[in-house]
Amino acid sequence: MRSRNLIRLSGAVALCALSLGAAHAATGGEPAAVVQVDVAPCLAAAAADDMDKAGSACASVIDNEKTAKADLVKALVARGALYARHDQVDRAIADDSRALQLDPTQADLFNARGELWLKKGDKPKAVQDFGAALKIDPNHEKARANHKAMARELERIGAQMAVAGKPSFNCRSAARAVEKAICANRELADLDREIFASNARVIREARNPAEAKALQREQDEFIARRNAGFGRPGYDLKKAMQERLQRINGVDGY
User: Fold this and answer.
1) Which of 83, 127, 153, 241 has a CB 3.0–4.6 Å from the CB of 191, allowing a cystine?
2) C-alpha distances in angstroms, 30 versus 21, 26, 27, 33, 107?
3) pTM reported for the whole predicted model
């Protein structure tokens, strides 16, 4: 009887040992190691402008739930920049937006997305992103230039919509022939208003009172030449006004 009990006990011990061995083998014998997601191939392919390699390399990082947050942001930024270089604007915006959700402290990325919004023609969103970049880094030169240009453009568009077809002066009190001609022509009226607004802007942004005075003197001289030249053979009022507007705003339009 004792022998039978020993045999049974030995069998139980052996079965337990086999079970532990199987469990040990199933887990590899050691705690499972955390697999490190390598972002380097994605960054390298994007930097090399290789769309094919970057497509798979970056996707393996971006779509992997185990990717560290910092590496995920790097991969999204790299792929977004690659998409932008290849004019895949919507894809670039999507990657930049996801990266900014993860890390909303990147001034460069806000500026980059603002430029992409500008490509799509969404000026309000572009201005918003340029402004966000400046909040993070007030000295960001590109964002400052972009924001300034777009703010002026939106201001100009808004002003034009509000007073479309109306010159800078009251047509009811127009006495000169040139003023009546401007009032009678929508395009000339818009030009006159743009000239007036642009001149007011450059005077407002003058570095000192002397410069502001000189700028106003230029405008007064233009008005005098316009009044004297209108109606004479060869004088083109529209051309003269367009040239004056370009001179005020500069070659780049601002």
Assistant:
1) 241
2) 13, 10, 7, 8, 44
3) 0.52
Q: What share of the chain is helix, strand, coil (3-state, %, to 5)?
A: 75, 0, 25
In a structure prediction context, what are the per-residue pLDDT tens digits for the chain, which is 254 residues long? Answer: 544 443 454 444 344 444 444 444 444 545 544 567 899 999 999 999 999 999 999 999 999 999 999 999 999 999 999 999 999 999 999 999 999 999 999 999 999 999 999 999 998 899 899 999 999 999 999 999 998 888 777 777 776 666 677 898 999 999 999 999 999 999 999 999 999 999 999 999 999 999 999 999 999 999 999 999 999 999 999 999 999 999 998 854 44
Cβ-based burial of 153 (10 A; exposed 0-12, middle 13-18, buried ≥19): middle
Name the residue type at position 199. Answer: N
